[in-house]
Write a structure and sequence with these properties.
This protein has helices spanning about 30-45, 95-105, 120-125, 165-170, 200-205, 210-215, 245-270, 275-285, 295-300, 320-330, 375-385, 400-410, 410-420, 430-435, and strands spanning about 10-15, 20, 25, 50, 65-70, 75-80, 85-90, 105-110, 140-150, 155-160, 180-185, 185-190, 190-200, 215-220, 230-235, 290-295, 305-315, 340-345, 360-370, 390. It is an alpha+beta fold. The strands form five sheets. Strands 16-13-15-14-18-19-17-20 form an eight-stranded antiparallel beta sheet, with helices on both faces. It is globular, with a radius of gyration of 21 Å.
C-alpha cells in the first residue's frame, strides 16, 4: 500500500474502500508555518479543513469537500530526551517508521496496536490501541501535543500547559485543531515473549479473568461458526531473543494469515455456504508457537487482506457475557462470517473521549471481508454492544450519534465546550463530526 489511500482525479479514498471524498484542494505543508497559513487561507475562502493520515479509519472522520491536508512532509523525529524518557515526532510520521527509528535508538513505546501503517496523529486522534492489563492506548502514552487551531495559531499542551486541552486533544477526533507534533513517553527497548496457542471458546471465556490477570498483554481471536479461538499472551522477558524463523514466519504470517486467508475469503464471498467449513479449517491452521523479540515485532503484524471493521469497547466485566451473546446470535442466524472476532483489553485512562475513559475496558472487534455485505452482521453486533453500554471506536463503522455519546461519556460536555472555544466557526467540521459531536 502506498503511504496514503487515495484515488485518481482529486478523489480521496480510505483503506477499507468505505469512504470517498472530493476536496476542493489538497495541501501538503512542509512546515508548521505552512500548515497555519493553509488553515488561515481556508478560513478566508470559507472552506472546511481536514487532515488525513493513511486512511485506515473506516468512518468518514477524515473526509472533507473543503481543504484536505496531507501530512506526508511533516515526518520524522524532532527530539529524543533520554533523561525525561520522551520522544517528539512530527504528526505525519508513520508508526512503522517511528517504531523502527526508536528501536535503532534502543527505545520503544510501552504498548501499541497491531497495525503500524497509520500516522502518529491519525492513530492517536482516533484512539488506536493494542491490548494491555496495565498499559493503555497509544494516546495514553502522549506527554505533550502541538496543534494548529482554527485561527491558525499554534497551541502546545501537556499536563502542566493548557491541561484542559491536553485532557481532550490526545484523542481529539480532528475536532479541536490539526496536530503537528506529539511527544510520547518511551522506555529502553525490552523483549517480549509471545505465546500463541489454540484454545476452545468455552475455556477462554470461562477462564478469561485469570488469563487477563496473569498476562501483561492478552488477546484472542474467535472464529465464528466454530468453538475455537487462537490466544496470544505477550509478557516481558529477560531473553534471549528467539524470533520466529524466517520460513515459519513467512508460512504463518504471510502465507496462512494473508495469502491463503485471502483466497479463503474470495471463496467465501462467492459461495457463502462454504464459510462454516472454511472457518473450521482456518481455526486449526495456526499451531501453537512461542517466540521472543523486540516489542514492535511482537505487537504488530502485516494485514494485507482488506476488510471492514466495527469495534466496541465494553466494561471489562461485561466482555464474556457480551461475547457469548454475539456467538449465540451468529449461531442462530443465517449469517456467514469468514473473519475472526478479536478481543483485547485496556485499563481505564483519563482522556475525555477515550473508549477506555474512566473505566477498565475490553474491546470486541467484528470484521467482514471487503466487498461482502456487512450491514446485517454489524447491526446485530451493534445491538448487543450498545445493550452493554458499549462505546464504538472512533475510526471504525458504527451508527451512534451525539445523543448516544452524551450518555456514554460522562465528560462529553467538557469536550464539546472546549470545541466551542477552540473552533467556534467549525473550521474542522465535517459530516461525521456533526453526527458524533452535534453541530
Amino acid at each position: 500500500m502506498s503511504s496514503t489511500a487515495s484515488g485518481k482525479n482529486g478523489t480521496w479514498r480510505n483503506w477499507g474502500g468505505t469512504v470517498t471524498a472530493r476536496p476542493v484542494r489538497e495541501v501538503m505543508p512542509a512546515s508548521v508555518e505552512e500548515l497555519s497559513a493553509a488553515v488561515a487561507r481556508a478560513a478566508e475562502d470559507g472552506l472546511k479543513v481536514k487532515a488525513v493520515g493513511t486512511g485506515h479509519s473506516f468512518t468518514s472522520i477524515a473526509a472533507t469537500d473543503g481543504v484536505l491536508i496531507r501530512p506526508q512532509l511533516l515526518t520524522g523525529i524532532r527530539n529524543i530526551d533520554r533523561e525525561a524518557g520522551t520522544v517528539t515526532v512530527e504528526a505525519g510520521t508513520p508508526l512503522k517508521r517511528l517504531n523502527m527509528a526508536l528501536a535503532r535508538e534502543g527505545l520503544s513505546l510501552t504498548n501499541m496496536g497491531d497495525i503500524m501503517e497509520q500516522t502518529a496523529s491519525g492513530a492517536t486522534s482516533t484512539g488506536t490501541h493494542g491490548t494491555g492489563r496495565d498499559s493503555a492506548s497509544i494516546a495514553a502514552q502522549i506527554k505533550a501535543l502541538e496543534l494548529v487551531t482554527a485561527d491558525g495559531s499554534v497551541l502546545t499542551c501537556s499536563e502542566k500547559e493548557n491541561p484542559e486541552v491536553f485532557a481532550a486533544a490526545r484523542i481529539g477526533l480532528g475536532a479541536l485543531g490539526i496536530v503537528t507534533a506529539i511527544t510520547f513517553a518511551v522506555e529502553p527497548i525490552f523483549l517480549l515473549t509471545a505465546r500463541e496457542e489454540p484454545m476452545s471458546f468455552d475455556r477462554v471465556t470461562s477462564t478469561f479473568d485469570e488469563l487477563w490477570a496473569e498476562n501483561e498483554h492478552f488477546e484472542f481471536y474467535w472464529f465464528p461458526h466454530t468453538g475455537s479461538t487462537n490466544t496470544k499472551r505477550n509478557n516481558r522477558s529477560a531473553g534471549p531473543e528467539r524470533p520466529v524463523g524466517q520460513l515459519r514466519g513467512w508460512l504463518e504470517d504471510e502465507f496462512l494469515s494473508n495469502g491463503v486467508f485471502q483466497v479463503a475469503n474470495w471463496v467465501g464471498r462467492a459461495a457463502p455456504a462454504t464459510i462454516p467449513a472454511i472457518a473450521q479449517i482456518s481455526s486449526k491452521a495456526l499451531s501453537a508457537r512461542t517466540y521472543t523479540d523486540i516489542p514492535y515485532k511482537v505487537f504488530t503484524s502485516p494485514r494485507r487482506v482488506r476488510f471492514v471493521e466495527m469495534e466496541y469497547a465494553v466494561p471489562r466485566e461485561a466482555v464474556v457475557e457480551t461475547l457469548r451473546e454475539l456467538k449465540a446470535t451468529v449461531d442462530r442466524s443465517r449469517l456467514r462470517i469468514s473473519f475472526p472476532v478479536e478481543v483485547r483489553t485496556a485499563p481505564a485512562d483519563d482522556i475525555t473521549l477515550s473508549t477506555a475513559s474512566g473505566r477498565d475496558t475490553a474491546y470486541i472487534a467484528v470484521h467482514m471481508f471487503q466487498g461482502t455485505p456487512y450491514q446485517a452482521y454489524f447491526t446485530a453486533a451493534e445491538r448487543i454492544f450498545t445493550a452493554h453500554d458499549g462505546r464504538p471506536h472512533w475510526g471504525k463503522v458504527h451508527t451512534r450519534d451525539a445523543e448516544y455519546f452524551a450518555r456514554a461519556y460522562p465528560r462529553f460536555g467538557e469536550f464539546t465546550a472546549l470545541r466551542d472555544r477552540l473552533d467556534p466557526e467549525r473550521r474542522f467540521q465535517n459530516d461525521y463530526l456533526r453526527r458524533v459531536l452535534g453541530s
